[in-house]
Amino acid sequence: MATLTPEATELEEPEEHGAEGGGLWSWITTVDHKRIGLMYGGTAMLFFLIGGIEALFIRLQLAVPDATVLTEAQYNQLFTMHGTTMVFLVIMPLAAAFGNYLLPLMIGARDVAFPRMNAMSFWVFLFGGIFLSSSFFLGGFPDGGWFGYAPLSTQSEMIRMDFWALGLLILGIASLAGAINFTTTIFTMRAPGMSMFKMPVFVWMQLVVAFLLLFSLPVITVALFEVLFDRNFGTLFFDPAAGGDPILYQHLFWLFGHPEVYILILPSMGIVSEVLPVFSRKPLFGYQFVVFAGAAIALLGFGVWSHHMFTSGLGPVAESAFSLTTMFIAVPTGIKIFNWIGTTWGGKISLKTPMLFSLGFIAMFTIGGLSGVTHAVVPADTQQTDTYYVVAHFHYVLFGGAMFGIFAGIYYWWPKISGRYLSEPLGKWHFWLMLIGFNLTFAPQHWLGLQGMARRTAVYPPDIGLETLNMVSTIGAFTIAVSMLPFLYAMLVNSRTGAPAPADAWDGRTLEWSISSPPPHHNFHDVPTVEAIDDFWHQKYGEDDEGRAVRVKTFPEPSRYTDKYIHLPSPSYYPIMLAGGLVLMAYGFIFAPLGIPLFVIGALILFGGAFGWAQEDPDHPMGDHDDHHAEPDDGSEPDETAEEAAGDEVEDPTAALADGVVADGGDDA
Amino acid sequence: MIALFLGIVTAVEIAIAYIPDLNRTLLTVGLIGLGILKFSVVVGWFMHLRFENKTMNRLFAIGLVLALSLFFVVLATFSGILAS
Amino acid sequence: MSTETAVHGPVGTDGADIRKTAMWAFLGSECLFFGSFIATFLLYSDETNGGPGTELFDIPFTSVSSFVLLMSSLTMVLAHNAYEREDGRQMRIWLMATALLGTVFLGGQVFEFTTFYAEGLRMDISPFGSAFFVLTGFHGAHVAIGVIMLTSMVIMSRRGNLHAHRGMNVELVGLYWHFVDIVWIVIFTVVYLLQV
Lengths: 669, 84, 196
Ligand code: HEM
Ligand SMILES: [Cu+2]
Prior knowledge:
The complex is a heterotrimer of chains A (669), B (84) and C (196). Chain A has 669 residues and is mainly α. Chain A is built from 20 helices and 2 strands.
């Protein structure tokens, strides 16, 4: 199946994705990081549309004073789900999509460290997202805000906040598995010669994000469990009447929440750091600084959480301390901005769509960072908190920042993924409409907030000077919606009919451009050896006397196929089984006591999946576990480098014989 | 050997906890010290962390240090140490 | 190139078993998981809401079960040694012993919980009760999962399905098991000994 058997490599040009074949089943059981990345991206884009529609409803309601488009209850549900969707079901998974697709390609590996765990991450994410969104049909969306402050979240009677807490717990599992996978992949599977400081910046940023996830997710997990237990088992964690302290919830949430905002932005910073050098035809200015600034942001990011709680009465010492750390975090952020600008400085800039989005990213993110620094000043924040000024801030960093970066990445890597360029005119329409729409929507919110317009309030009265800017903001929101049309059209149509893209579509610098577009199923025919940062560029270009780049070598267009035997992880249906069981359990829990049978069934499926997974013979995955002692015959000894790079957690035929000893040792033998 | 050592440490801990009228700070320091000792022995020898590479050591160390320091700060904000 | 030796799994470019790197990352993450619960407990250790507090703790009893768990780490080490020697029979014996000790510990916890409930300390009576039961309960759940994994190891080994090069192996389960043990060392010190 997934294994490129010697026959399958007779260069008979099978359709998509090497020899893996098409068909639904092949996608369901796939462990190929590229397919998983695509599924991550596609799913997240669907959720992006859902979250966007929710936002349009919010803006419709706010377009005029005293509006009645939505009831207050509906409004609460929509802003809660809009925030939750965009953070957990759109930006995080999109970052995971890029990580999945690109990490192995950029570090010269054939897959991630744990391909099946990778597939599980995706299925858990998909089912978790469906679970969370299905609350709409089962009693209504959650309505306690994306941060679900207790005791609001613990005291409402409806099950909708159970959906929220359980949904986030499930999504947390997907993210944690992904983080462990990426960490291990980056630490252990880099191509020979690629030391840590020769990795592309995007890889670095993914590593930092993985660390942030590793160490912040468990904290929100605890907060969510406590909410869930308060709601369902009568515990009193956040019940002030009994001595519980809601402030504890705020600490736990923001201990996760602030690292989380860097989880959202760092992948885009990585993307932009890849795009800018290519379209400026200059190396990234100050590689080490960008990397260290990323790591510093992560470290400091753990020390600023209480700036979300300035109005909760922390006391002057704590407030001053957190105010200072928050201001400090602007320093590494500023360093990055200077480095990006330095990269473009004096470069031969080509304003293709990916570059436009990257420049847009820098500009918008800078504005958002500056308003962030104004929140760091405690007395100022006391005025700003819970107003539209804060809403403006985080949309400048999240939409103007993270989403613009993601779009830059999509336009940049789509030729690699699909083998075709996206149309430049459509891309430019998309960019300019989105930039204008975005600023129309969110720039006015700075003023609205400073005038005192409170966030999370469904209506505002007329005649207090809020009408015009709110109307502008709503018009902006619909402009953003329109800007998505050229994008969707390009994605749907250009992917099939666009101009064919060569392997090295943009004269790139990193390893993924050295292989065919779309990439071979096994990524690299031969695992590359790396000597420098931007190794691929240095193979192509030398320097003349004045330090200008001169082309020294042109590579022939690489083929997608090889006649080598390359051993790849085999498909498996256990990941989806495990994920399915988990979500059934969640539904069972919500509808207890009626749901208890469902819970039990889910648990059995989960257990069966885990047990099957543990015993699965990766070389004969679909059943048949008995004949693993038979292999391999040494004639088919895989290409050495292939196996070590291909995510050998699951497969390694050479070891099958040897380890049978342990398995059968003693009396069985 | 190591197991014996751990057993003895546990016995000492319990004994300490039962010494009547032992100064409270001394007790706390003593128990925490012994706890750390046991912790390190299990992690270092049973779990072989002493003999593993830097990556693994760091991954675990970051978790440990973050857990200790973050929650120290959180509890400090509650206890009023930072309030005045 | 990666798996010349029988017992050790796939090796990454840094020369270490990639699954061990992953396991340590997971354990680092777990530190914050238990850290959060322990912090919650410390915050609420006096919030008894008029209900019973730490005076119910039975230190001699808990010491014995702590000792049982500590010894299970020893049997786990012995199981791992047998595994390295490729002595499947010995390995299974020690794995079983470890699982058994874990079960005894869990039995102790069940007994403790029922006693506390009978004495009026419940998780819905006070934040102290909530924090105590949920912290120790999650630890117990970790032990239970460990017991399941140990038992599965034994079954898989008997069926000849235990493979060093893929999935879970004795060393990884061992790491997990020891970790659960050290979490208990912390809980025993912080939650029990320091509170009475
Ligand atoms: C220079 C860097 C930054 C500083 C100094 C900063 C500072 C702040 C402060 C003090 C607040 C609290 C405002 C309040 O609620 O009163 C805040 C809110 C927020 N920030 Fe930032 N921030 C920065 C960058 C970012 C980035 C990069 C992101 C995300 C990518 C982000 C996302 C958010 C979000 C989502 C909120 C609102 C959370 C909520 O209340 O729902 N910030 N920021
Ligand atoms: Cu923040």
